[in-house]
Amino acid sequence: MSCIILPAESQSEELKGTLSVYVSPSIRHQIEQPDMNNDPYSLADQPVSQSAISLLEGLATTRAIRRYTNEQIPHEHLRDILYSATRAPSGSNRQPFRFLVLTEGEQAQQAKALIATSAQEIWTAKEQADGYGQGSGADPNSPKSRMAKTMRSYVEHFADVPALILPCLVRYRAPDPMEGASVYPAVQNLLLAARALGYGGVITGFHKPVESELKTLLDIPEEVFVACTLTLGKPQGKHGPVRRRPLKEFVFTDKWGKAADWAIDPPGTRFTSAGPPQKQGQRPI
Predict the structure, then answer these.
(1) What is the torsional sign of CA 216, 221, 226, 231?
(2) Which of 85, 98, 147, 195 has fewest C-beta within 10 Å?
(3) Residue 201: pLDDT over 60
(4) At residue 209, what are phi and psi to the nearest 5 degrees?
(5) What is the pLDDT of residue 159?
């Protein structure tokens, strides 16, 4: 007697004399499409995913994403994103960057909750100090009001992000302002790789007030510098062209403040007036 695995609804007269076994759609899917998350070793045979988004397009359209769906990031995409991150340069190629990826584990949930509390306290204080509910902030349609709404939602749902990543730097000498050059390029690589695969994220410093507790919880060595927190997930919104000040305000030639003749924005560029705070009487920078 032969044995044929098929859906019950497919049984027919032609199969009399055979043993028909019903397999649920979810089980059939696992048979037909092996779950890479349950078989990480098969990733050794899987090349990095490719994207139709060009490098230059990704650079110009990678937005800060703070709203995510509940969809988890598959292990193969986490592998591809972190592989791309670790291709970044570092001083003398010492590669002192490390990435602690927190998704669904018990300690991961505790770490998310810990930083979420810090994030909510920090944003509440900033919201009040910067008057986000005053002036144009009182208009629900103003950019200021929309930003406040987005940030409030972000910190309130921080503990539920699909992935929380802690980019770290293994210090091998005294702290120095230049040491960031050996970790932040890797962070940018991470964000660009995430963009290419349909994800998005944003960098924050919400971990700082609870860094000591965080290190204890996650067994991070004391000499390791937690460079930032980075939340990652599938965007509820979408990426798109970012807005910046005109190129001539960023690029100088020969001396400070002298705009380069070729510093001309391409067609379709959108601008913003945002910039660093200016002291009264200070010349524009």
Answers:
(1) negative
(2) 147
(3) yes
(4) -65, -20
(5) 96
169, 183 in Cβ contact below 8 A?
yes
What pLDDT, in 10s, does the model give residues 26-40?
Answer: 444 443 444 545 566
Q: What is the C-alpha separation between 59 and 54, in angstroms, rounded?
A: 9
Q: What are the tokens at 116? A: 């979420």
What class does CATH assign to 55-233? alpha beta
Look at the block and give the residue holding tokens 């044995």.
Answer: 3
CA angle, corner 259, sides to 253 and 260, nearest 5?
60
Q: Are strands 97-102 and 163-170 parallel, antiparallel or unpaired?
A: antiparallel
Query: Cα separation of 248 and 264, whole Å?
Result: 7
Look up the pTM and report it: 0.81
Tokens of 82: 């972190």
Q: Which pairs from 275-284 meet CB under 8 Å and 24+ separation?
A: 275/245
Task: Kindly list the domain boundaries of the chain, sorted by start residue.
Answer: 3-45, 55-233, 244-276
